[in-house]
TrEMBL record:
Function comment: Converts the preformed base xanthine, a product of nucleic acid breakdown, to xanthosine 5'-monophosphate (XMP), so it can be reused for RNA or DNA synthesis.
Protein name, as recorded: Xanthine phosphoribosyltransferase
Recorded name of the encoding gene: xpt
Provenance organism: Enterococcus plantarum
EC number of the protein: 2.4.2.22
Subcellular location: Cytoplasm
Amino acid sequence: MEELVQRIKEDGRVLGEGVLKVDSFVTHQVDPNLMEAIGYRFAEVFADAGITKVVTIEASGIAPALFAAKKLEVPMIFARKAKSLTMDEELLTASVYSFTKQVTSQISISRKFLSSDDKVLIIDDFLANGQAAKGLVELCQQAGATVDGIGIVIEKSFQDGRALLEEMGMRVISLARIDSLKNGEVEFLEGDA
Ligand code: 5GP
């Protein structure tokens, strides 16, 4: 997605350890117009898939997922990273190792929001080693829901996430694919959409 690639070139910052900082438009301050364009692009790609729910994980997946859900005219569900006192129903849960925070946490969604009738589009901001997306797939599978595909805003293609998800039989659509972050430079591969 050219608009996203341009924005990463202009405002992304490479941190050591293969991390890209995009806090001025995705992960802290959020650009609503860009998020709308991203969400709508995912909706276009999955328009004929019969998606019934968009599932993401808090916090930075919420903005693109919400716009995709709006366009697809379905609800958006975000998995929570911390259990809230108000989550008093039965929960679907999975363990996720966080690439950026380097801790394992439990993610959860109330069982009542997903069922075996659902066809899910999973969306997340980054794909690194694939643990967050894998955790979301597991939550959907626990509910008996079908995952039709995974939409990623920024894929770091030099990490193993895509391979892991494709081995699970998942279709992965990434709008920006990064080949390398070496020497402080962002090198891109052709994106999927
Ligand atoms: P994974 O589970 O695929 O290893 O990592 C995905 C999660 O880690 C994303 O939800 C994102 O929050 C975070 N993440 C991974 N790599 C980066 C990165 O380079 N920059 C930022 N800002 N977040 C990242």
